[in-house]
Amino acid sequence: MSGGLFDLDPDLTPPDRMPPVSAPRRAAVVAGIDEAGLGPMLGPLCLGFTALRADTHALWERLPRSCSAEARERDGRLAVADSKEVYTRDTRGAARLESTALAFLSLAGTMPAPHSAQQLFAGLPPDLAPQDSPEREPWHAHHPARLPWAASATQLAEQRLALARELEERNIELLEAGFRALAPAELNRSFARTQSKSRTQWEALSPFFQRLWQRHASQGVDLIVDRQGGRMRYAALLDATIPLARTRIVAEESERSEYLVEEHQGPRWMRIVFQERAESVSFPVALASCLAKYARETWMEGFNAYFASLQSGLLPTAGYVTDARRWLEDAGPALALCGLERTALVRER
Question: Is 13 part of a structural domain of the chain?
């Protein structure tokens, strides 16, 4: 499979393979990264990440009263699972996804608790913020004015309280919960610079590695990244992304690649695993998947509302290829009115 998130051009020479290695000690922090919107023609590429002070990735067992691995949870608990299963294109699915995303975002402190979608996209920390200011997008003002936009505010408050209590009882600290949203205009500029979709995608991911390394790796970080595409080797990319550190190869296999990154002269270290279907084994990855999907779906709410204001009766789009082509054909009058260049709307790769 080509064109996946980590199916990169082999233009870096990998470090020499080291003898089998193990982490210097148990990591104090578990973390996860996942994406949403890798393949569409319209809308942003969103990447979510999470980090918790805990000793296992299987946190469903530690948080049974507030969280569930069941994607279609209906008993009031927060569904933390693959976002493609949590989210369905109906009111219930949108509410389920939003409850999970906002409950965790409001407790993490990575970004201010958002009360509107405008705040959601404008409140990212500087190291995760996109180059394009969201206020420059004409649909920014059409994002949902109040959050939650799908879930019940009363139920969300109850779920958030239950989550906070159980985290405290279990001595688990939610350190990070956030995302990056890269709009088509920014992606297209990067494609022009890198001449590589995969290189652009890796550059979009790099700030997460760097943030985890700088803020948490002195305690040891156990990071799992959901892997897509056929690439097996990441050591050289990690060496280039995390300075003053050595990347040691633990395993490079068809479904899983593992590395140990250690600071040359210092206490920082990270175990990094790229794994297929990681959301099924890692609570942080499943949560990252939900954050990324929520960011993308909220962004598309504003996008569709803006163009509907320009053209009555225009059906919304999720931005995926087949429907995006239908939408681009249907939206001729709105596109003429908005005056935007095609590169601001449609991804070139």
Answer: no
